[in-house]
Write a structure and sequence with these properties.
CATH architecture of the largest domain in chain A: 3-Layer(aba) Sandwich
Structural class of chain A: alpha/beta
Structural class of chain B: mainly alpha
CATH superfamily of the largest domain in chain A: NAD(P)-binding Rossmann-like Domain
Distance between the termini of chain A: 47 Å
Strand content of chain A: 25-35%
Largest sheet of chain A: 9 strands, mixed
Oligomer: heterodimer
Helix content of chain A: 25-40%
Largest interface: A-B, 29 and 20 residues
Number of strands of chain A: 16
Number of domains of chain A: 2
Radius of gyration of chain B: 25 Å
Shape of chain A: globular
CATH topology of the largest domain in chain A: Rossmann fold
Chain lengths: 326, 45
C-alpha cells in the first residue's frame, strides 16, 4: 500500500502516475482534509482503492510519498521509525539537509529514504548520472529551472530568490546573494531562453552528494524583474493554482579523451508533472524491490538504479532533449 | 543636519546606481546557436 501526503497539484499528479503504473491501493492524507476528499473520488474505481485517512493511520503504508510543502524531515522521521520507506519531494535546502541527516536512522531501520525526488532536485540527478556515462570524467554541473509547480512550489521559488545561494566551487561551498549571477539559459522549446539567477535551492548539495567528484556545481532559477525586486517582501499576490509550462536543464562539463567537452540536456513540461513522474517512478521501483539500498539517498547517486529510473521517466511521457550544434 | 542630508543623498544615489546595475546588466550568453534533439537513452533496462 502506498500513502501520499499532500493532495495538491503535485500530489494529484503523483496519484495519477502511480495508478498508470498499475498500483491500486492508496492512503491519501492532506492537512486540509477536504482537498483529499475532493481528489480521492476522481480516481476511485472498481480496481483502485483510495482511502482518505488521518496522519496517524498512514503507518499502514509500505511506502510514503511526501508531496506536501516543506518541511518533510519530521514526517520522514516518524514514517521511517514506523517501518515505511519514504520518498520526499522537498526542494528546501535546510529540509533536504535535515532529511539526509536521517541516513543513520533509516539504515538502522532497514528503510530507504529518497531525498529530493522531484524535478529539481530529482530529475537533475538522473540526467547527471546519464550524462556522466558520456564522459571519461566530469567535473562541473550547472542546473537551471524555469517555472513553478503548485502554490507551495511558487512560495519556495519566491523565498529562494531572497536567500543566499549555495554553490560548490573548487572544493568548498560558495555563498552568494540570491538574485545575482544573471545568465541567459536556453531551455527546450516551447520555453526558450530565460534569464536565470542564483537562488537558495537544494540542487547543489544533493548533486554533490550524488557525485562527490564534481568540482563545480551551481543552480539557477528563472526570474523576472518583479520577482527579484519583490523577493524580500511577502508575496504581493497569492500564487497561481499551478504555474504554466516549466523547464529543467542541466549542463555537464568534463573530459572526453584529451579534450574538454560539454553536454546539455533538458525537459520542457509543467514542473508539477515532471516532479510527479520522478516521484512515482521512484516509488514504483521501491515497491517492486528494484532498489536494494537502505538509508537516505539522492537520485543520481551510485546506490540508485539511475538508468532504470530515467527510462521509467521517459516511458511516462517526458520528452528529454539534448542540446546540439553549439 | 547637512551631514544627514549628505549621507541620505549618498545612500540614495548608491541605491539607485545599484538598482540600475542589477536590473540593466547584460545577460551572459552561454550558448548562441544550435538546437534540441530527443535524447537517446540506452534501450536495455
Amino acid at each position: 500500500m502506498i500513502a501520499i501526503v499532500g493532495a495538491g497539484v503535485t500530489g494529484a499528479r503523483v496519484l495519477e502516475q502511480l495508478i498508470r503504473l498499475g498500483h491500486t491501493d492508496f492512503l491519501l492524507h492532506d492537512r486540509e482534509e477536504f482537498r483529499a476528499e475532493l481528489l480521492a473520488p476522481k480516481h476511485r474505481s472498481s480496481t483502485t482503492n483510495i482511502s482518505v485517512v488521518r496522519k496517524r493511520n498512514l503507518v499502514q503504508a509500505h511506502v510514503v510519498v511526501l508531496t506536501c510543502g516543506a518541511p518533510h524531515n519530521e514526517l520522514a522521521l516518524s514514517f521511517v521509525q514506523t517501518g515505511a520507506h519514504v520518498v520526499s519531494m522537498s526542494d528546501d535546502v535546510d529540509d533536504t539537509t535535515a532529511l539526509l541527516d536521517l541516513n543513520d536512522l533509516a539504515t538502522q531501520h532497514n528503510r530507504l529514504l529518497v531525498v529530493g525526488a522531484a524535478a529539481s532536485p530529482g530529475l537533475t540527478g538522473l540526467l547527471l548520472a546519464h550524462l556522466s556515462t558520456q564522459f571519461d570524467s566530469i567535473d562541473e554541473a550547472h542546473v537551471a529551472v524555469h517555472g513553478t509547480g503548485g502554490p507551495d512550489c511558487a512560495r519556495q521559488h519566491h523565498s529562494a530568490l531572497a536567500g543566499s545561494s549555495v554553490g560548490w566551487h573548487d572544493g568548498s561551498w560558495l555563498r552568494r546573494p540570491s538574485g545575482s549571477g544573471r545568465e541567459l539559459c536556453w531551455f527546450p522549446e516551447p520555453v526558450g531562453a530565460y534569464d536565470c539567477y542564483r537562488a537558495e535551492v537544494a540542487d547543489p548539495a544533493l548533486l554533490h552528494r550524488a557525485m562527490p567528484q564534481l568540482q563545480r556545481i551551481s543552480a539557477r532559477i528563472s526570474a523576472t524583474r518583479r520577482d527579484r525586486f519583490t523577493a524580500r517582501l511577502p508575496m504581493l499576490a497569492p500564487p497561481n493554482a499551478e504555474g504554466g509550462m516549466g523547464a529543467v536543464r542541466i549542463e555537464v562539463r568534463g573530459m572526453r579523451g584529451v579534450s574538454r567537452a560539454m553536454e546539455i540536456v533538458g525537459v520542457a513540461e509543467r514542473l508539477a508533472h515532471i516532479a510527479a513522474i520522478v516521484a512515482a517512478t521512484t516509488t514504483h521501483a521501491i515497491v517492486n524491490d528494484n532498489i536494494s539500498a537502505v538509508g537516505a539517498h539522492v537520485l543520481g547517486g551510485s546506490e540508485m538504479p539511475n538508468a532504470q529510473l530515467l527510462r521509467g521517466v521517459a516511458d511516462a511521457g517526458l520528452h528529454i532533449h539534448q542540446f546540439v550544434g553549439a | 543636519m547637512n551631514f544627514i542630508r549628505r549621507v541620505l543623498m549618498v545612500l540614495g544615489i548608491a541605491g539607485a546606481a545599484g538598482a540600475i546595475l542589477r536590473l540593466k546588466g547584460r545577460s551572459v550568453h552561454t550558448t548562441r546557436q544550435g538546437g534540441w534533439k530527443p535524447l537517446q537513452l540506452p534501450s536495455d533496462k
